């Protein structure tokens, strides 16, 4: 059994273990899982002097998160995680606010459509619609960064490919956290990290992929960006934990980007778990990762 040098991540693991549903008992419905994920986000507190308000951008419901120190024109388009079946702007305010504060930027969190009600490529279409609308509203591509976690990280990379295909201006960069970038679940870490990932399982991901794809090809690059051609896209920062099932997705994505001559930085944080940034209130590593990401984004903004 693994032991952890970082007592804070050990504490997070203990908390996650206490929240695990009884595998032999009734399993929560999708509606219950969605409500629970939103509730966790709504319990967190925003940084001081950070405000959020609902908005509609490109016909897509969104949430604007505005830290007091945001510089004029700087924008983050944030795509939330949740396996393409759950999650929303309500599930992510504390983490998004910390990221926006670190980048000194306003964040727009897209409430993109989810499966199984809205199958692939609905989420991609919504991300493109919001991006187009931001440009049309006067946001400069050089002052826009696309960010996302888990499925939202994969969606950010799908958006990069969609923008390239549509010959739209690339943003200043992409910041992705623990991206789910291979819906075939074929990487080695789906096996090697199965015992150390406290929150993500291959079986669960298989179910979510099926709900999102509805039988369509998981190797479509807009579903699994690791199969795409990224030549010409903007720089990418990838942050991931060493103990997560999706580790291989980040490593493979970095390899694909590097072969396409994209400027890419891959950070694998020792002992950290899936989207460890969400634990910024109690985890020093999360706060350090966000601070470093803020420096990276600051350097990308024109």
UniProtKB/TrEMBL annotation:
Molecular function (Gene Ontology), one example: triacylglycerol lipase activity
InterPro entries per UniProt: AB_hydrolase_3, AB_hydrolase_fold, GDXG_lipolytic_enzyme, Lipase_GDXG_HIS_AS, Lipase_GDXG_put_SER_AS
Domain (Alpha/beta hydrolase fold-3) ranges: 76-277
Gene3D superfamilies per UniProt: alpha/beta hydrolase (3.40.50.1820)
Pfam family, one: Abhydrolase_3
Alphabetic keyword roster: Hydrolase
Catalytic site positions: 150
Coiled-coil zones: none
Family: Belongs to the 'GDXG' lipolytic enzyme family.
Record protein name field: Alpha/beta hydrolase
Organism: Phenylobacterium kunshanense
